[in-house]
Design goal:
mainly alpha
Length: 54
């Protein structure tokens, strides 16, 4: 006894493509942010420890 109003239509190929593309872009942004944060932390750590190469 499922309610027809609560059932959702199957995802179309275009919707799936757009959803996956957005997920990939979000993952790439998160990866870039992690790399930048880790780089800043490493630079700060080297600066504090006194072995900065700059």
């Amino acid at each position: 006894m499922t309610d027809p109003a609560s059932r959702t239509a199957p995802e179309t190929a275009r919707e799936k493509t757009e959803r996956l593309k957005a997920a990939r872009q979000e993952a790439e942004s998160a990866k870039t942010a992690r790399i930048e944060r880790d780089t800043r932390k490493a630079l700060a750590r080297r600066k504090i420890l006194g072995d900065a190469k700059t």
